[in-house]
Amino acid sequence: MHTGQPLGSGRTADVYEIDESWVLRRYRDGTDATPELAVMAYLAASGFPVPRIGPPAGPSMPLSDLVLERLTGPTMAEALLAGTLSGPEGAETLARLLRELHTIPPRLSHDPDDRMIHLDLHPENVMLTPGGPVVIDWSNASEGPPELDRAMSSLILAQVSLDPAFPSGDAVRGLLGELLDRLAEDGGVPADALARATALRASDPCLTEGERAALDAAAELVAAGAGLARD
């Protein structure tokens, strides 16, 4: 289908303008977006802040395409770097979004302990819109224990904080500490959840070699912040 100007690119998908209200998100490798669409529809019906889903852009729209609400406002990452959002405010927002997400029962699982989990909820995937924070990029979403989601968000922040190419590593480490303090109120990041998150992260084909090499150090950083003893 015809698309407008590109608005942004992530590791796996590109976003194009349709009009003032809608954008097209397209996976470059042709990944079927139908499961992601189902998750977002379920979460929207549950009252969680996700982008509105638009009508198909055409009768032959590829399965790799998603029509989504065009959001306005910075990402949380942009706001933190610009200084318009403080580290404590960012940590409180992330913890609240995780907490609210984890009140939603799974769509498919019959395990009473499972909840909806994002598995990639970090500042670049939170848009600060005039109506409040909206969580984007549900491609990794699953159903499982909330502590796994808390561990993954913490691990991703730790990885960013250790990236020598990132200009604000100290600030991200501060954000991580603030987040771990708040997550402790919800059950924290247990050692087994951190180990599982690290293994899942290591299996992500989109990780760079540098990110993969920093995984163990990132896990150690989370463990220290969460008060875990590691071998």
Description:
The protein has helices at residues 34-45, 76-82, 87-101, 146-161, 169-183, 191-202, 209-213, 215-226, and strands spanning 6-9, 13-17, 22-27, 65-69, 115-117, 126-129, 132-135, 142-144. With 231 residues, it is an alpha+beta fold. The longest helix has 16 residues, at 146-161. The termini are far apart. The model has no long low-confidence stretch (mean pLDDT 92).
Quick summary of this structure?
This protein has 231 residues and is α+β, with helices and mostly antiparallel strands.
Topology:
Elements (H helix, E strand, L loop, with lengths): L5 E4 L3 E5 L4 E6 L6 H12 L19 E5 L6 H7 L4 H15 L13 E3 L8 E4 L2 E4 L6 E3 L1 H16 L7 H15 L7 H12 L6 H5 L1 H12 L5
Antiparallel strand pairs: 1-2, 2-3, 3-4, 5-8, 6-7
Helix pairs in contact: 3-5, 4-5, 4-6, 4-8, 6-8
Beta fraction:
5-15%
The backbone outline, from C-alpha atoms, is globular
Distance between the termini: 53 Å
Radius of gyration: 18 Å
Oligomer: single chain
Estimated structural class: alpha+beta
Order the strands across the largest sheet as they lie in space: 1-2-3-4
Mean pLDDT score, rounded? Answer: 92
The secondary-structure element order is EEEHEHHEEEEHHHHH
Number of helices: 8
- Give the number of DSSP strands: 8
The biggest sheet, with number of strands, parallel, antiparallel or mixed sense and barrel status, is:
4 strands, antiparallel
- What helical percentage do the residues reach? 40-55%
* Low-pLDDT residue spans: none
